[in-house]
Malate dehydrogenase
Amino acid sequence: MSTPVKVAVTGAAGQIGYSLLFRIASGSLFGPDTPVELRLLEITPALKSLEGVVMELDDCAFPTLAGVQIGDDPATVFDGVNFALLVGARPRGPGMERGDLLEANGGIFAPQGKALNDVAADDIRVVVTGNPANTNALIAQSNAPDIPASRFSALTRLDHNRAISQLAAKTGAAVTDIKKMTIWGNHSATQYPDLFHAEVKGQIAADLINDQDWLENTYIPTVAKRGAAIIDARGASSAASAASATIDHARTWAQGTPDGDWVSMAVKSDGSYGVAEGLISSFPVTVKDGEWQIVQGLELNDFSRAKIDASVAELAEERDAVKGLGLI
Ligand code: NAX
């Protein structure tokens, strides 16, 4: 077996953590021949509960789990890590304004960005799942000046997977028949799942379905508001699916995208498709040798343009708010 890959997970004692850790430890991320060492970060009051989770990890006797370290200090936990999955975040409490939420999360993601900057491995790759994911990623990235900005990303893969699954259900196709799905913009209700480039068995999905009303009034809201529907049904937010998408995102980053397909990742904009440079926005990306590239040259119709612009405008507002708070 090769040297263990060190994977940090924050918010490790939370709901998503409870699914994510076991998937990583069992080899879902790097396969059966690559050992992993888990570095788990929590806030001090949650460490006891995290110890319980570690006992369960021990009890699984996973052949690929080479070690587990836990702690409440990012500078210790992130030391030498190759991947950082930043899941722990401050949820919106009752009466909390968006500015308060951004500020509270700035208090988490600014120090975590600094710690990664100081102690992570040279090949560090960061995935932010904790909400507001895009802007939290921007905060972490802005506080890590020595790490290439391209190493920071936010999760829109859950939205991407939801978009594939809903399209498969509508068309009767298998999820594996669907290629080139894109989520554009923010991981929020303004996100735009794009059926004008997605293909079902090689045919453009929007042409195949040929029903703009369904696309606009059923499909897009179903994908964008799926998180709320899960909370309604389950009484708790998406956890196993969010963990699975976090694994998908990190695995694609490590292993690449197959020929003829792409995935959605929120990454730092270089101005592609008119998305303001510097925003962490979701794009269609291909990945090769651990580096992502935004798919270029897609034509956007007026409908897509307006949807993308609205979501990007929301990201720009969030960026301005965290700039105003001195977080970036
Ligand atoms: P939980 O509240 O169950 O767990 C969060 C954990 O983070 C808690 O154990 C808490 O102690 C810990 N934490 C808080 N501050 C921390 C810090 N400074 N350092 C380390 N740990 C810290 O939430 P869970 O359901 O696991 O969700 C985690 C995050 O994922 C939330 O922000 C949630 O909104 C977000 N989600 C993002 C999704 C996405 O697609 N990007 C979808 C699912 C999920 O809603």
The chain has a mean pLDDT of 97. The chain has two domains: 5-154, 157-318. The pocket of NAX is lined by residues 10-11, 13-17, 41-43, 46, 87-89, 91, 108, 129-131, 133, 155, 158, 187, 227, 237-239, 242 (CB under 6 Å).
